[in-house]
Structures are given as structure tokens and as C-alpha cells.
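Hi team,

As requested, here is the filled-out complex form for the 5-amino-5-deoxy-1-O-phosphono-D-mannitol run. I kept the field names the same as last time so the parser does not choke. Let me know if anything looks off before we queue the next batch.

— J.
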Amino acid sequence: EKAGYSHFMQKEIHEQPRAIIDTIRGKFSLEQGTIGGELLEGIQHRIKDFNRIVIVACGTSWHAGLIGKFYIEKFAKIPVEVDIASEFRYRDLVIDDKTLFVAITQSGETADTLSAMRIAKKMGAAVAAVCNVVGSSVSREADSTVYTHAGPEIGVASTKAFTTQVASLFLFALQLAQTKKTMTPDQIRHYLKELVRVPEVIEKTLKHEDYILSLAKKFKDAKDFLYLGRNVNYPIALEGALKLKEISYIHAEGYPAGEMKHGPIALIDENLPVFIICPQSSVYEKIASNVQEVKSRDGIVLAVVTEGDTGLDALADHKIEIPAIAEELSVFPAVVVTQIFSYYVASLLGLDVDQPRNLAKSVTVE
Ligand code: M6R
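And here is what came back:
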């Protein structure tokens, strides 16, 4: 059932182009620049009343939520808060019937996320879910569920569930924008055209697998890693670090690159590999200066850059290229690079990639 791959995680990494096609299929018309389908079913009639969106999740799904915030605020101009379910649950909340609550969960069974959703519902919020499992507790209790069609995810480390969540949130944000008329059909069409390129962009990124394996060989004995990103790729820094921690047991920190000088910069020395996610974007110059800061303290820079970009050649010790795509969607190839890297580090270390110690696929206790 691993279809020739050594581990489920590797198989699931490679399934991502297909999973994304399945997730976005039938939900939009490229010709008309419109989004439709199941996305807002069940909450459509309340959309004009929402003055705020609260996204709640755990782990990797929380990282998808952080990206969703960028999409919704940029496209639909609705303020978004993103919270960790176990924090949301035990706080004095300000929630009412003008709040749209969105739970993101692969399994639909995560105890904290489910409880958070119940609390929000009780307080009058409309509750939507982005979920991978039909018939799961969260999907049964939500007013509206957007299904990610990732197929079963066996590896404990989430890969294709994450990218399909992000693709769903992208469409969700565009549909909100369409309903609220914050974007024209032409603008929506532009982003849809970029979205349909994502599967091919991931395929091309997967072609760098051998190169990324060679980096995993080089760095598998490092004691710590730092992952940096900005803007929409800041959550990818968090996700890259989480993936490395959970399957390779190497300490890793993900940080917004601009925040580095407020603390983590003290960690940098000639032994610290620093993954920097810096595709061409509106914050490219900003992050380039962060690369400079790392290099001037002798950190080892592994830069994820857009194909053909030579701007960081003088500073990067290693450069991993990803295909050009709209900045908002660069998260897809970027996260795939970090997934492959973590996968190879863990498998070179001889660890149980699919069933890492101390972890369960779905955390049904708090
Ligand atoms: O099923 P869920 O999406 O609710 O699970 C949330 C987290 O437990 C999950 O994403 C966890 O962080 C993964 N092991 C990350 O790879």
C-alpha cells in the first residue's frame, strides 16, 4: 500500500499534486472568474453579517490557519484571528453571532478543536470547518464543512492534509471576496489561474528531491535548526520546524524573520543551519537583509529561492530553487522543500518516520 515508497510520509508528499487537484476540482469557473460549490453552504445567508473570523486549530492545521488569515484579510478584507484550540478553550472570549468561527482539522476528532467549536457555537457564532474526514465529529457538528480531498493520511506528520487545507482556505477567501465584492471577477480569475498551476509547481519542486537528500545527508547531525520566513511564508517557517522536530527529534525553531533580532539571533554561530524561505515577493528585500544578518554571524544559510534568482548567491551556502508562482501561493513549493528535507533527515537517522515516538495521529484527549 506504500506504492513503492519506503514510507507513507514519502508517498503522501508525492501525492500532493493529485490531492490538490481533487480538493479544488469543481469549485470554480476559470472562464467566469467565479467560485461556487460547497464552500460556503450552510452559512451563505449569514456572510454579510460577519464582522470577524476566528480560525482555531492545533499543530500543522494551525499553521494552515495562519496562512488562511493572510488570504482572507487580503482578499475579503475581513479581520481574522487565528488561535490555538487549547488556548481558545480556556479564555474569556469575545464571540457573538457576527463571528464566523472556522475549525481546521485533518481528522475532525482533535479534542481541543472540537471543544473550541462547541464553545463558539454556544456563544452564537456560525461555525464552519475545513476537514479531511467525512462523518468525523467536527464535520457533523459544523454548520458548514469544506472537505479537503487529501485521501487517508497515514503518516503522523501531516503533509498532504496541510497543503489541501491551504488550497481550501485560498478558495474560501476568494469566495468570501466574491460575496463581499471586494474583488472583481478579473482579479479572482488571476488568482484562480495561479492556483491551478500549484500541482505542476509541486511536481517540479519534487524533482529537486535528490538535491534536498544531499542536504539532509550534510545536516542530519546538526543539533539545532532555525527556520525563518516572512509574511505568508512565516507559517511555513513554523511548519518546517515542526516537521523536523516531530520526526527527526532535532530541535528546531520557526520564527518570523523580522523578529530574529529580538532574541534568536543570539543562537547563530557557525554550527547553526538556518533555513530561510525567501521566494520573490513583496518582502524579498526585507528578508534578504535578514539573510545578511545570519551570514554576518557565520550561520549556515539554506535559502529557498525562486528559480533563476541569483540575488542571494553571495550569502547562501546552499540554495534550493522553487518555481515562480504568485507570492501568496509560494507556500506550496516552499513547504514541500521542508517536508522532503525533514523526511530524509529522519529516515537517514533510521527513525520511525511514520510513527514518531510520543505522537498520535489524532489527539483525542486534551
Ligand atoms: O487532525 P488535526 O488536523 O486536528 O490534527 C492537528 C495536529 O494534531 C496535527 O496537525 C499534528 O500537529 C501533526 N502531527 C503535525 O504533523
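Two things worth flagging: The chain has a mean pLDDT of 95. The longest helix spans residues 160-180.

Thanks,
J.
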